[in-house]
Amino acid sequence: MPNHNPRSSERSSLFQRSKTLPTGSHRRFTTPVIPTFRYDSVSNLSSDLRRDGHDGSCDGDNSNFSVGNRTAVLKSDEKPEEATPSQVLSTHSPSQRITRLWTHFSLTHCLKFSCSFSFLYVMFLRAKVAKLEEENFILLTRCSSSSRVSGSDNNETLQLKDTNNKAVVLYSVIITIVLPFLLYMYLDDLSYIKNLLKRTNHKKEEVPLKKRIAYSLDVCFSVYPYAKLLALLFATVVLIVYGGLALYAVGDCGGVDEALWLSWTFVADSGNHADRIGVGPRIVSVAISAGGMLIFATMLGLISDAISKMVDSLRKGKSEVLESNHILILGWSDKLGSLLKQLAIANKSIGGGVVVVLAERDKEEMETDIAKFEFNLMGTSVICRSGSPLILADLKKVSVSNARAIIVLGSDENADQSDARALRVVLSLTGVKEGWKGHVVVEMCDLDNEPLVKLVGGERIETVVAHDVIGRLMIQCALQPGLAQIWEDILGFENAEFYIKKWPELDGYRFEDVLISFPNAIPCGVKVAADGKIVLNPSDNYVLEEGDEILVIAEDDDTYAPGSLPEVRMCRFPKMQDPPKYPERILFCGWRRDIDDMIKVLEALLAPGSELWMFNEVPDLEREKKLTDAGLNISKLVNVKLVHRQGNAVIRRHLESLPLETFDSILILAEQSLENSIVHSDSRSLATLLLIRDIQSKRLPYKDTKSSALRISGFPSCCWIRKMQQASDKSIVISEILDSRTKNLVSVSRISDYVLSNELVSMALAMVAEDKQINRVLKELFAEKGNELCIRPAEFYIYDQEEVCFYDIMRRARQRHEIIIGYRLSGMDQAVINPSDKSKLTKWSLDDVFLVIASSH
């Protein structure tokens, strides 16, 4: 029978059309989603329906569904927006939410809960049956023996009560043990139920409750060191209490107190449960013994970990240093060995001191490296600690506030990185709340970075610029051969060194009398009490005032004291003028970062017309740019003319292109590009030295020494300085050596003079650490202006074979405004500084030389 319903025919035509769609069509039919509308109340819905009447219509072609004036349009080419589960649940009725909650629980959880509940219920029924049987037995007994005395009735009543108490205890123990496990199993579901009942809509996922509890425990055990011990103690108490109650419930212990004691014995000794009788008591006692073994194993593990951590802390140097008035060294470098040696020698007079080293290295490695130095510490103790000088906690660990001196060593990185690290260390020191009572000696690499460190640290910061000190010393040694050994004797604590002390008994003395007042020392200057300045080589008419201190050169600070004035003969002596300066030719092999400062010093010391040849691998245009950026104005150089040559100093054909036999002095500089590797730098310097010596020996067999003779006019022909300069008709070659182990190799190569960089810097650091005032003295002696350390020929003060004492020569030197501090005889290898017997008559030769402090002109 044909269907005359228009809507049904329309739906059938739509269905037929859907079947005829092509296979590759992009149009897809999905199950229509009927939109749901939420009304505040049923009355609102009915009122809307009454108001709209029968206007509600349904259009199958456009898929439009309307209820009153609320219309939802579903387009065929748009996918419906999927609703989140929380949004769906929030729109359902309470019955629907309960239904979805039940389906949310998995079958596994239901089975777990059913099994647990069934087990507890079975235990409850068994206990109840046993109780009823026992009560039935008691009632039968009471009915059959009605003739017993009233006392037996009371005992039966007590026995019944005791049975009831044990049952209650047993149920309580079982429930309190099982309940936490059940709660832990369904912790995650509790939060879900809570959100469901509150009808909340959380778009972001919440952390499960189990993970939050585990995280809280982890934080507790990490933050509080005693949390593990407290947890172990709590577990022990719980095991004893629950075990005792279980024993009381299943056994015949006589009382709760006896059951608790018995439980403790099972925990402490697992073998005590062997004499238990009955299934219940044996099961409980075995469980208690197993828990006791687990607890004691955990306790042994914690004790073992604590002991291991303590030993590891001692081994790694993490314990606190309880010292005062010690010297603190921050950092680690190749200068540490010679620095420790000098500090040990300085503390020898007081029986040794304490030196603490804080570096970012392992404590055992530091102690092993210090042991490899193989020198006698002379009673000085060296304590190593592992840590960072940039961390305040590590600084407090080495008692930075109680140190009498703090030495900040430069790192083995390049100069800029080393100075930046030193600046950060000084900032860390200024952050110490307790402050520090001593002064800080900072090793710097670049002179341009010194003002910044001074700005941060203030007046208590003393800086020793390693590159600047070595550069100036190399120039002084080039102009005065043999000066390097003299500086080693003065800077080191093995011989004579500088000391400053106040002597009230000399107040009112003129300096010319103070000069000869110390039999075992040589006064060199005065620290003026009025302004705190140190005046080197003052005038003879200067009168010491109250509070003034005297700067002397002595063997130790407790080996000298003023005495009576000796008799000094004033006799005629040769008065010679200083020889005029003549032009010189100097060669620099290599490039240093402070080469501009060295050029400025040469400009101040050399005569007009001098030439400075610069031989390195830096291109000429780049050299001028670097010198200009460093602040050197090449156009304003008057005395020195720069001659540029490009080449490699370790390639022979490059060196052969230079007139090596015509230079008065050759300085082999440590390459800036090899600052990070002192071994490679020294190997390069040594190779350059050997090549230069070999090329010079194969040039003209005799070198015209006119320029050299003019250079040291006034020196006798047999003077040891000239012999050193003209040995084998070669120029003076000075090599900058960074590693002290290269010293022997340099001596084997028959070099005329050398500079031991790291050792000299370490000596300067140790001297400034012992007395920060010495830093001002060293800076003036190294400067191009002011007073300097010089080598003078004997003919300036004596006649040949004249016999006079050392005091007489000191008086004669004062006529030239100089202070003689020592001498070197022609047949001696080492100079004598601060002679012991200054009143002894000695016959002098013109081949001798004297060491003086004189003002530079």
Descriptive labels:
Putative ion channel POLLUX; about 850 residues; Rossmann fold; Helix Hairpins; 29 helices; elongated; Alpha-Beta Plaits; transmembrane helix; six-stranded parallel β-sheet; alpha/beta
Q: Give the helix proportion (percent range).
A: 40-55%
CATH class of the domain at 585-697 and 720-756: Alpha Beta
Head-to-tail CA distance between termini? 136 Å
Assigned CATH superfamily of the domain at 585-697 and 720-756: NAD(P)-binding Rossmann-like Domain
Strand order of the largest sheet: 6-5-4-7-8-9
The gross shape turns out to be elongated
The number of helical runs is: 29
Radius of gyration: 49 Å
Uncertain spans: 1-90, 149-154, 702-729
Summarize the biggest pleated sheet.
6 strands, parallel
Report the strand count: 25
Protein name: Putative ion channel POLLUX
Organism: Noccaea caerulescens
GO cellular component, one term: nuclear membrane
InterPro entries: CASTOR/POLLUX/SYM8-like, CASTOR/POLLUX/SYM8_dom, NAD(P)-bd_dom_sf, RCK_N
